[in-house]
Amino acid sequence: MRKNSIKNTRINGEIQKELSNIIRGEIKDPRIALMTSVTAAEVAPDLKTCKAYISVLGDAKAKADTIAGLKSAEGYIRRMLAKNVNLRNTPVITFVLDESIEYGVTMSKLIDDVNQKSGRGDEDDE
Hints:
The protein has about 130 residues and is α+β, with helices and mostly antiparallel strands. The chain has helices spanning about 5-25, 60-70, 75-85, 100-125, and strands spanning about 35-45, 50-55, 90-95. The protein contains 4 helices and 3 strands.
C-alpha cells in the first residue's frame, strides 16, 4: 500500500477519529489536559506504526504532563483501538506534540500587529 493511497488516507482518518474518542471518553488519567485533541494520525503503509499528533491547550507543563500520561496509557489505548477498528495489525502508537495551531495563532497575532501599525502610519501621512 502506498503512503498517499485512498486506503491509507481512510485508515488515517479512522484511526484519528477513534484515538480522539478514546482519549476524550475512555482515559481517566488526571495528567491528560481536558483540551487535548488529535490533530492528525499517520499510519505507516505496512500498518505497523502510527504517529499521532496531539495538540494541547495550556502551558508547557500541561503539554508535558499530557504527553507523559498518553505514553503511560499507550497499551490501553492500543487495546481499545484494536477493539474498535478492525485491522489485521494494530499499529504501535507514538504520540507527538503538535504545536502548529499555537504557532498559527502567534503568527496571526504578529501579522495583525504589523497591519495595525502600518495602518496608523498611513493615517499620519495624510
